[in-house]
Design brief:
The complex is a heterodimer of chains A (119) and B (115). With 119 residues, chain A is an all-beta fold. In chain A, 0% of the residues lie in helices and 49% in strands. Chain A starts with a strand and ends with a strand. In chain B, the strands form two sheets. In chain B, strands 2, 4, 5, 6, 9, 10 and 11 form a seven-stranded mixed beta sheet that branches. Chain B has a four-stranded antiparallel beta sheet with strand order 1-3-8-7, with no helix packed on it. Chain B starts with a strand and ends with a strand. Classes of the chains: A mainly beta (119), B mainly beta (115).
Chain lengths: 119, 115
């Protein structure tokens, strides 16, 4: 079963609009971390934002915020005031706790969403 | 500074060649990773090193041989590769394996083509 599901293969958004990229996850581990990465066509994976399973507040980093709904197992990325440079692939990823030993050390990625910002 | 440097950026090799990919970080991180990413797919974990010791090998064929000579450097030695091994190879590092907030920082990758 997929651990990370991103249901939007591609999105077109007008510049300056807000964007929400969906991510749902599946884990029975109470301790886990959720990550969003941006991958431009150049290939580098750029870390955007992190949310821990025990964090009480939604994470924010500049124009990025994470809408964390634990009961729904949802960790959507919100980009405010989108810019042309935001066009890229966006990956949601999860890391489960080392203690439970369930593939803990690497990241498990979703299939990604290809975001295109239009002028 | 969150920089992970990978060389070369591009590599073309024949199936009988031996080549190496190099990854370097100077952030004091003690965990380093190799991922393989095929076109239009997410990255897949290959190897994890923790304090210069191999921690995880995700059933990768022996034609891929990782090496961690010191805490800053990670190599991936390639031998007798197949055309299906053509992919983007990404290196990443993190402070260690045990922090809850274990952010992995990635390099720009090496685009490998096997002819």
């Amino acid at each position: 079963a997929q651990k990370i599901t991103q249901t939007q293969p591609g999105m077109f958004v007008q510049e300056k609009e807000a964007v929400t990229l969906d991510c749902t996850y599946d884990t029975s581990d109470p301790s886990y971390g959720l990550f969003w990465y941006k991958q431009p066509s150049s290939g580098e994976m750029i870390f955007l934002i992190y949310q821990g399973s025990y964090d009480q507040q939604n994470a924010t980093e500049g124009r990025y915020s994470l809408n964390f709904q634990k009961a729904r197992k949802s960790a959507n990325l919100v980009i405010s005031a989108s810019q042309l440079g935001d066009s890229a692939m966006y990956f949601c990823a999860m890391r489960e706790a080392v203690i439970s030993g369930g593939g803990a050390d690497g990241l498990t990625f979703g299939k990604g969403t290809h975001l295109i910002i239009q002028p | 500074d969150t920089e992970v440097t990978q060389t070369p950026k591009h590599l073309v090799m024949g199936m009988t060649n031996k080549k190496s990919l190099k990854c370097e970080q100077h952030m004091g991180h003690r965990a380093m990773y190799w991922y393989k990413q095929k076109a239009k797919k997410p990255p897949e974990l290959m190897f994890v090193y923790s304090y210069e010791k191999l921690s995880i090998n995700e059933s990768v064929p022996s034609r891929f041989s990782p090496e961690c000579p010191n805490s800053s450097l990670l190599n991936l030695h390639l031998h007798a590769l197949q055309p299906e091994d053509s992919a983007l190879y990404l290196c990443a590092s993190s402070q260690d394996l045990w922090r809850a907030k274990n952010i992995q920082y990635f390099g720009a990758g090496t685009r490998l083509s096997v002819l």
